[in-house]
């Protein structure tokens, strides 16, 4: 895995040598693969990219270049991907916000459902509700009471319409909260502001928050998974207090539409091999990720299902209120 600058240098060198386009196109991959991460470094999407990058590159026989391109809750990176040549040399890791961005961001230059090839939903990680240590609440009931008494309190998310924003909106609707939303370009800058006392609470991916919870720097209130997390067995699930409350962070591999069939099959096989590598599975598990590695059809269906499931909530709470 090499950085973007090194990749550009390699590409420039190839052009300087006068290699004909036909020669570069023979066999896939014929050059380093650019993997767009549409969020800031340090978050769950970036963690996923850095967990699979080297292994994917080894199986494909080319370096994988991670290109962090944050903005518009992932829509900036998705636009870049949509405009890329469909030859398998540009891919993206999509976050859950991909499913609902079209309800939030005006004039998207792509069709969310037809403008991409959803190759595989790779992993999920529970969302966890966390607060600063100086917020006087040790459980959900106490936190809700505190927030109802302090309507100027603020919460962060990894971006508008991300799972963290959706979960916070669900909590606000369920408990009548009027707190202020502060969107970030990923979970890492959110965490920095939470630790710095600039926001009061947040829903975020457990994979990012877990080390700081264990270090006692932030307080875990509840997880949004169907059951308690094995990583934090003493932290209750949200649905123990609010039935049906569940919306995890998911991350999947996406390509531009129109990949050649042989390229697509080679990519899918490489991804399958990586996601079933015991060392990769362990690394994901140690960081509170669950490996899924779904089929393309199942991934595309998940995107559409989440869009339909969250449309009313997004329009009622996120579009109209935030």
From TrEMBL:
Alphabetized InterPro entries for the sequence: BUG, Bug_dom1
Signal sequence range: 1-25
Keyword Signal listed: yes
Gene3D superfamilies assigned: Bordetella uptake gene, domain 1 (3.40.190.150), Periplasmic binding protein-like II (3.40.190.10)
Entry keyword set: Signal
Superkingdom classification of source: Bacteria
PANTHER family: BLR1237 PROTEIN, TRICARBOXYLATE-BINDING PROTEIN
Family: Belongs to the UPF0065 (bug) family.
Protein name, per record: Tripartite tricarboxylate transporter substrate binding protein
Native source organism of the sequence: Comamonas antarctica
């Amino acid at each position: 895995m090499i950085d973007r600058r090194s990749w550009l240098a390699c590409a420039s060198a190839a052009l300087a040598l006068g290699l004909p386009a036909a020669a570069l196109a023979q066999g896939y991959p014929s050059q380093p693969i650019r993997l767009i991460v549409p969020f800031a470094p340090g978050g769950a999407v970036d963690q996923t990219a850095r967990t699979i990058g080297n292994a994917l590159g080894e199986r494909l026989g080319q370096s994988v270049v991670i290109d962090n391109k944050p903005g518009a809750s992932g829509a900036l990176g998705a636009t870049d991907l949509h405009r890329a040549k469909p030859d398998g040399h540009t891919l993206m890791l999509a976050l859950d916000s991909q499913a609902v961005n079209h309800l939030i961001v005006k004039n998207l230059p792509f069709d969310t459902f037809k403008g991409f090839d959803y190759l595989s939903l790779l992993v999920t990680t529970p969302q966890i509700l966390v607060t600063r240590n100086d917020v006087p609440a040790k459980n959900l009931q106490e936190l809700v009471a505190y927030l109802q008494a302090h309507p100027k309190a603020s919460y962060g998310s990894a971006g508008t319409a991300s799972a963290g924003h959706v979960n916070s909106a669900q909590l606000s609707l369920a408990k009548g909260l009027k707190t202020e939303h502060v969107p970030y370009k990923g979970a890492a800058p959110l965490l920095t502001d939470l630790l710095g006392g600039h926001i009061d609470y947040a829903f975020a991916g457990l994979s990012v928050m877990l080390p700081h919870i264990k270090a006692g720097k932030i307080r875990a209130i509840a997880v949004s998974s169907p059951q308690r997390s094995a990583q934090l067995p003493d932290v209750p699930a949200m649905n123990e207090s609010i039935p049906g409350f569940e919306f995890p962070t998911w991350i999947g591999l996406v390509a531009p539409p129109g990949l050649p069939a042989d390229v697509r099959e080679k990519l899918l096989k490489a991804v399958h091999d990586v996601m079933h590598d015991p060392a990769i599975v362990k690394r994901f598990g140690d960081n509170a990720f669950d490996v899924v590695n779904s089929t393309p059809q199942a991934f595309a269906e998940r995107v559409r299902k989440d869009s339909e499931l969250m449309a009313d909530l997004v329009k009622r709470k996120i579009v109209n209120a935030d």
